[in-house]
Amino acid sequence: MAERPFHWEFKPEPVRRELLRIEGGRRLDGSVTISGAKNAALKLMAAATLTGERCRFTNVPEIEDVHVLTEVLRDIGVTVDHPAPNVYEIASGDAEWLFVPLEAAAKMRASFILLGPLLTRFGRVIISNPGGDRIGRRPVNLHVDAMRALGAEIEYRNGYYFAKAPGRLRGGPINFPQITVMGTENAMLAACLADGHTVIEPAAQEPEVDDLIAFLQKMGAQVERTAPNRIEIEGRRRLRGADHSVVPDRIETGTFIIAAAVTRGRVTLKAAPCDHLGAFLSVMGDMGVSISCGNDTVEVDATQAELHCHDIVTQPYPGLATDLQPPTCVLLTQAEGLSHVHESVFEDRLEWLGELRRMGASVEIVDQHHATIEGPAQLHGADVEIGDLRAGASLILAALAADGVTTIRGAHHVHRGYEKIDAKFLELGARIERLAEGT
Ligand code: EPU
């Protein structure tokens, strides 16, 4: 590998700090189309590096995280074409420089998903430790242990993992001490080109993992979920290019369901994955939100809703998604009675409730994993700041339900994971304006 300095040419666009100004108190009404899932698209794009042949993805959300990954891939010599909105074509004939720099990891933790595919295909990679973020410590030890279980040699120096596969990786058992979504995906991607049979247990069951399995199968990989929490892979020497449409985003769907509910509106969501929202829809039903699922549409009618309090616990799929905990908390502020919230997946994901309190919510953060919310509370406009994606989307929901004008700083975080979120809310009748910070 050529010698190059660590901080070389990866120069993602500087972050353009943005704010959203929202005038609340309007019922949302109308229909909106759900985009492809962020947490599937990123892994599918990484999977495309397992072959030299061209892969084509449709229904890719046009979000900041996809744009960052595009830059990272191009920097390592992968061709990424973007022939039309929501369509990406990836050809990784060769990779010039198997290095994922700190700047990429700092902008997007999910860049660590490149560890497995680059290591198994090219035999080596140097990749930055993504470190923690606003929702917790977020270590990557389980990814690294999984690669070692497949025979990789990995050293950690100066914030970087130096990973090598002497010859081909070797299939084998991977037993995770706890469920990890990206850990499962990284292990699966690496095992697809390893020599022999791999069994991953317990494997994450998220629908985005199954979308990745479906794509890998199209590429010719022998990978299968053989039990709800077990994935088995028989490694192949080569994979081929394939086409795939990204599964719709269940978290965006849940976010819009709550937007309808907190504004007592009536909204139809098109291209929405009802089947992937079981635990969440059951909470909504218990709280008094009327939802009906069609083939690929979801209709929410909250015009007559009487909202009841509800205790919630986040869990790996098929449990209630941690990514839907923040939006659900906004709805709990509007429900009659005392609700208990138990965030069991991440340790700092309740911190943002402090901002919700500034808008008039009656919230008590008991500890890192527990909070209580008493409702109903009349939310009011305020100046708030967001630090992460899902909390950001949730403050938008709170602002839509509030009296008066809310100014949300740090709104660029939301564009990391939601395609045209302001335009979609405008279509539903919200008063929302996107401005550069400082205006
Ligand atoms: N964990 C470890 N060591 C590891 C990996 C994970 O201790 O090596 C711990 C985590 O700290 C956490 C738990 O295991 O406490 C579960 O984390 P997991 O690995 O499942 O999370 P992830 O794969 O890093 C993905 C999504 C998250 C989503 C979680 C849980 C992507 C890119 N991210 O993260 O999405 O919250 O699964 O469902 O797929 C988001 O979209 O906003 C987001 C944070």
Features:
globular; 13 helices; alpha/beta; UDP-n-acetylglucosamine1-carboxyvinyl-transferase, Chain; 4-stranded mixed beta sheet; 2 domains; 439 residues; single chain
Would you mind describing this structure in some detail?
Helix 1 (38-47) runs parallel beside helix 2, helix 4 runs parallel beside helix 6 and helix 8 (250-262) packs parallel to helix 10. Strands 22-23-1-24 form a four-stranded mixed sheet. The protein has a four-stranded mixed sheet with strand order 2-15-17-16. The protein folds into two domains: 18-35 and 249-436, UDP-n-acetylglucosamine1-carboxyvinyl-transferase, Chain; 38-245, UDP-n-acetylglucosamine1-carboxyvinyl-transferase, Chain, CATH 3.65.10. The chain is of the alpha/beta class. Residues 1-9 have low confidence and may be disordered. Helix content is 28%, strand content 26%. It has helices at 38-47, 64-75, 102-107, 115-122, 141-149, 181-191, 207-218, 250-262, 278-287, 325-332, 353-358, 389-401, 421-427; strands at residues 18-23, 29-33, 55-58, 79-84, 87-91, 99-100, 124-128, 153-157, 160-164, 173-175, 197-201, 222-227, 230-234, 243-245, 266-270, 290-293, 297-301, 312-313, 337-342, 362-367, 370-375, 383-385, 405-409, 431-436. The structure holds uridine-diphosphate-2(N-acetylglucosaminyl) butyric acid.
